[in-house]
Amino acid sequence: MESFALKPGRGRQSLHFERELAGCSALIADGDNNSRSVLARQLREFGFAEIVQHSRIRPARELIETRRFDLILCAQYFGGDSPTGQDLLDGLQRDALLPFATVFIMVTGDASFTKVEQAAESALDGYLLKPHSAAGLVQRLLAARRRKQELADIFDALEQRQLPQAILLCQQRYESRGVYWLYSARLGGELLLRTAQFKQAGALYQSVVSATGEPWARAGVARALLSGGEFLQGTQTLLELTQDAPNFADAFDLLGRAQLKLGQLDLAMSSYRQASVLTPSSIARLQRLGKLAYYLGDAAEAALLLDQATLLGQESRAFDFQTLALLALLRAAQEDWSGVQRCRDFAQALLRKAPDIVRLRRIDRLIEGVALLQQPSLGAATAIAQDLAQALGAADFDFDLACNLLSLYSLLANAGAHLEHADGRIQQLGQRFCTSDATRSLLAAAAKAYEPFAQIIQRCDQHLLQQSEQAMKLQLLGDLRGAIHGFLDLAAEHQNTRMLDTARQLLQRHEGALADAAKYHERLKSLGASIGVESPRPGSGEAQGRAPAGMVLRVSTPLPQATSHW
Fold first, then answer.
1. 539 CB contacts (<8 Å, ≥6 apart)?
2. Does 205 fall in a domain?
3. pTM recorded for the entire structure
4. CATH code of the domain in which 125 resides
5. What is the Cα–Cα distance from 20 to 565, expressed in whole angstroms?
C-alpha cells in the first residue's frame, strides 16, 4: 500500500494538506486491526491531531454520541451478525447525531458499486475502496470538505430555518449547473417535499431524471406523486424503478408503503421482504417485515424476524419497542409464558434506562397484561386493559398502541373476561384509526382472537366512508366551505387523520378561491396538534427516521417533515 507521508519539504501540495487538515480529529471504526493501523498512520501523515480507533460499532456509536469528530472512517462490514457501517450511518442520521460539518466516509472491500449504492443514497460523504492509496483517501476527504464549504450558504439558510431561501439557492445552483448541481437538486427536492410543495418537487425530480436517469430522482418523482395523493401513478413509477434498479432497497421500501396504502398487504410484504434481503442487518427493515408478517397471520415468520431484530437491536436506538409487544403476543398464543416474561424483563430493563418514555411504559403495561393471562388473573389483566384504554384519546396514542389494546381486549374477551364498555372503546378506536384499507385490515387482524370486535372495526370503516361521502357531496354542490368544515368536524369528532388530510387537500387545491383561507389553516394546525399522527406508520416499523430514498439534513435545528400522511 502506498505511503504518502506529508513531511516538510514535500512541496506546496503537502503544505496545502497540512494547512487544511492540521488539528482535525478522526474516529476510525474497523474490525480489521491492520486496516485501522494503516488508516491511522495515513491520517497522522495528513496532519490530524487526534485519532481514536474502535474495532466494533457499538462503542464507536457511544463515543460519537458524546463528542464531535471532523472525520469518521467506518468499515462497511464487521463480520458475522455484527451491525454494519450502514447501520451506524442510518442510526446517526436518524437521531440527528451527525453534524453537517463531520465528514463520514465508508471503507469497503466490495468492488461492486451496487453493493455500496445503498450507502451512497443515504447522503454519505464518500466511500473508500480497499485496497486504497493514501492519495485516494486524502482526495475523498478534501472533496467532501470542499462540498461542505461550497454549499455553506444553503446550509446556513437551513440552520436559520429560512427554507424558501434554501430552496431558491438549490434551484439556482441546479439550473446553472454549478458545482454540486446534482446534490443541490436532491436537497432542493427534499425541501420542497417537506414544505408540501409536491408538484414543484415532482417537476424538479423529473428534470433530474431527464438529465441523468438517477434512481434517487426517479424515487423522488414517486414520493411526490404519493405525497400528492396520486397513489396508482406513484406505485407504477416504483414498480418500474424496482425492475430497473433491483438493488435499490429504498425503492422497495417506498413500494411497500404505497402498496400498504392501497390495501395490497401481500404485495407490500413481498416488497418489504426484498428490501430486507438487500440489507439483512437493517433492524428497521427486519421489524417492518416482522410486524406485517404478524398482522398477516404468519406467526412463524413474524417470530423469527422479530427475534432477530431484538437480538441485533438490543443496544440500538433503531429498536422499536413495539417489537416486544408483538413478541409477547406471539409467545402467549404459543402458551410460552417464559417467553412472555423475557419480553417483560427486556421492557423493564429499557424502562430503567428511559423511564420517561410514555410509549414504552404503555407497551410494558400491555406485556404485563398479556403475562397475567396465564394464571389466569383475568381481573388484573382486565384492569390493565381498561387503564390503557383511558389514553385512547391522547395525541401520542398511535396506531401500534391501538392494535396492542385491541389484541389484549380480544384475548380477554375470548377468555370470558367481563369488559365494561368494551364495544364503545373498540368503536372509538376504529373511528380514530381506520384511515385506509390497510389500517382497517390490520386492526381487524389485531382482533382475530374475538370476531365480534373485528366486525366492529369493519362497521366503523363503513360508517366513516359514508360520512366522508356526505361531506364530499357538499363540494360537488359548490359548497366548498361546507365540505372543508365537514371534514374538519369529522376529524375533530373522531380524531381521524384521513378526514384531516382530506380537509387539507381541499384547502390546498382551492385556497385561491377562499378569502378566509387563513382561518382554515389555523384550525388545521390546531387539530393536527391535538389529533397527532399515525406514527409509526402501520406495519412500517418506522418509529422515526428518514423517508425511504429521502435525505437526512444534517443541521442542528429540526426541520419539518412532509405534511402528507400517505
1. 260, 265, 268, 288, 291, 292, 295, 438, 442
2. yes
3. 0.77
4. 3.40.50.2300
5. 45
